[in-house]
Amino acid sequence: MSDENNRNEAPFTEEQNQQMIDTGIIATGNAPHNIHCLSIIGQIEGHYILPPQNKTTKYEHIIPALAAIEQDSTVEGLMVVLNTVGGDVEAGLAISELIAGMSKPTVSIVVGGGHSIGVPLAVSADVSFIVPSATMTIHPVRMNGMVLGVPQTMSYFEKMQERITRFVTANSRMSAERFHELMMEKDELVMDIGTVLEGEAAVKEGLIDRLGGLSDAVECLYSLIEKKKGSSANPSASKRRKSTDKSGKDSKSSKTEKSAATGNTRQTKKKTTLVQLKATEATDGQSRRDTLNSADWHGEH
Predict the structure, then answer these.
(1) Whole-number Å distance between alpha carbons of 268 and 114
(2) pLDDT for 237-273, tens place per residue?
(3) CB 3.0-4.6 Å disulfide test: which of 68, 73, 182, 227 passes with 195?
């Protein structure tokens, strides 16, 4: 009877279901480690509201969620699931910076696609995964709507592109030169310049760390959590290493100071001896002069 009740129970509570409907975020339970799954899907919505028919991820939902995950002591790790066509550049880059700055272990997995600003989001985690059928599009920054045709506009685009390039290359194994080369490829896309990388190609280029599925990403996140727990549970080893290094430095400095002091003492003794010799010579010379003067005075010479 109890087995039937367990089978009939819903996998998620009512609160979790409502949370999933509102923000697409849900915290796991009954697992070896309590990890939080954050999904970034559709188009990333920034400062402007997108049409209602667009599937969007709102940055005003993601940013507070990341802050809550960082502060929640019950959450041990974060897994980011990406299937996005891109969107607002500044909003996507802001979310990427927050994920990269988290102290808890993070793993990302690209399913479907991680295009445009989804590239920085994918590489922002500690370890990034991509499934074989997923693709990632690398292209320059572009903007819709009215654009002022002035040099300042082009300079703004270039600076924004440099920000994205610095972030991607700092959080992946791809060089800035190769990233720029893929970005400016002319023969890959029909209506734009850029490159589409499939899962295996993204790993070979060094953009994504590993090729794998959901179980691989979860297993990797568990190992990161256990590794962090192991290092935090044994702080005495690091303290011993620090004390050893400190004692070694102290002993080395004390030896140096001791040798310096010995050298100074020897030099002082040498100088004192020279002064005494000079004083003795001066006294002998003065006594000789006094003797000669006295003899001459008395008419002995």
Answers:
(1) 75
(2) 444 444 444 444 444 444 445 445 555 555 555 445 4
(3) 182
**Catalytic (active site) residue 139:** yes
Alpha-carbon span 114 to 267, nearest angstrom: 73
Buried b (16+ CB within 10 A) or exposed e, 151-161: eeeeeebeebe
CB atoms within 10 A of CB 59: 21
Active-site pick, 116, 124, 128, 172: 116
Query: Band of the pLDDT at 146, cuts 50, 70, 90?
Result: confident
Q: Which of 39, 96, 108, 139 is catalytic?
A: 139
Q: d(Cα 111, Cα 131) in Å, to the nearest integer?
A: 6
For 124-157, give the DSSP string: TSSEEEE-TT-EEEE------S----SHHHHHHH
Is 259 an annotated catalytic residue? no
How far, in Å, are 50, 233, 271 from residue 278 at the CA level? Answer: 97, 69, 10
